[in-house]
Description:
The structure is a homodimer. Chain A is mostly helical.
Amino acid sequence: MTTKRSPARERLLDAADRLFYAEGVHTVGIDRIIEEAGVAKGSLFYNFSGKDELVAAYLDGRGERRRARIERHTAGLTDPVAKLLAVFDALAEAVAESGFRGCAFANAAAEASGPDSVEAVALRRYRGWFDELVLSFATEAGYADPAGVAERVRLLYDGAVANTQLDANRGAVAVARQMAELVLTTAPRN
Amino acid sequence: MTTKRSPARERLLDAADRLFYAEGVHTVGIDRIIEEAGVAKGSLFYNFSGKDELVAAYLDGRGERRRARIERHTAGLTDPVAKLLAVFDALAEAVAESGFRGCAFANAAAEASGPDSVEAVALRRYRGWFDELVLSFATEAGYADPAGVAERVRLLYDGAVANTQLDANRGAVAVARQMAELVLTTAPRN
DNA sequence: CTCCTTTTAGACAGGTCTGTCTAGTGCCTC
DNA sequence: GAGGCACTAGACAGACCTGTCTAAAAGGAG
Lengths: 190, 190
C-alpha cells in the first residue's frame, strides 16, 4: 500500500507524454510508445485499460503540471493583479522549454473523434479549471466587471499560446503580458 | 477547356469540407466522404491522386474563402486602421455561422504527421499570407512600429479564435475587436 | 455514330492499429 | 519455499483504412 509506482507504468507515461505531445495522440500508436518506453505490450494493457486511458493519464499529467507551475509562480504573491500577471510568467516558462507545441488539451481535442471522447472531456475539465482560476483572481482584485477582465486575460493568454505555436513567435508571451498589464491597470475597480 | 467542373469532384470537395472541418482530417476516412458525397470510390481517385491531395484541396478552399471574406469586408474602406478592424468583422461573421470549430489550418496541423505533411505546409502558407496582410495594413497606417502593431492585432485575432473554440465564448470576437481598437488608436504613429 | 472523358459498383490487396492471449520469468512477502 | 504481483516476448485476431483494379455505363463533342 506504499506509493511506490511500477517503473513500467512510469516509463509508459513518460513516453506517452513525449510522443503524444510532440506528434499527436492519433498519430502515435501504442507500438511506438511501448518501443520508446522499452516495455512489453502486455504491460501497457496490464497498467491501463487501453489507449484511451493512457491518453487520459497523459492529459491528466499535463494538467497537473500546468497547475503546479502556475501555483509555483503565484505562490508568495498577495496582490491578485500580480497573480494574474504571473499566469503569463508561467506560460513564458513553458514556452521557453524546447519542443513547445501549444496547448496539449487543444491539440488533443482537435483530433478527437467526438464531444464525448476522452480528449474533449479533458479539454472541458481543463478549461473549466483555468477559467475559474482567472475569474477568482479577477474577483479578488475587486474589478467592477471581473468576468470581463477575466475574459480579456484569457483572450490574451490564448492568443499568446496560438501565436507562439502558429508563427513560432517567441516574443508573443511578453507582448501578451504587456497588454494584460494595460488591461489590468486601466480596468475600473470598485 | 471551359471552367465547367465535374459534379463528382465538387460533391467530393463539399463533403470533404464539411466532414474534415467538423470531425478532423484524420478521423474522417475516404469511405465516409464518398458515402456523404454519393460518389463512387473510383471517382475520388480519378479526380485526386489520393487523400492527401483531397486534404490539400479542402484547405485551399478554406483559405480562398477566408481571403474572399476579408476582401469583402475591407473592400471600399480607405482607412487602413478600419481595414485592420474589418478583419475582426470578417471573423465575427465566420464565428456566427453554425458549426464554427476554430481555424481549419490549425486544427489540421495539430493532427498532422510531420512538418512536411500537407497540413503543416498549408498552415505555413496561410499564416504567411495572413501575417503579411496584417503587416501591410499596419505599415499603410503609418505606425511607428508596424511590426509590433501587427503582432498585437494577430495576437488578439488568434486569441478570439481560440477563446471562441475552447470556451464556446460567443462574445470573444467583439471583445478582441474592442481591444484592437484600443491598440490601434493609442499606438504611436509617424 | 464514334471517340473520349468521367463515373459507377464493388471486390480485393496490403498496411496499420488496437487489443487478446499464452507461457514463462523475476521478485517480494509471508 | 510458496504464492501472488508485475512484467516480458511475441504471436494472433479483428477492425479499419488507403489505394488498385475491373468491367461496364453514361454523356458530350466532333
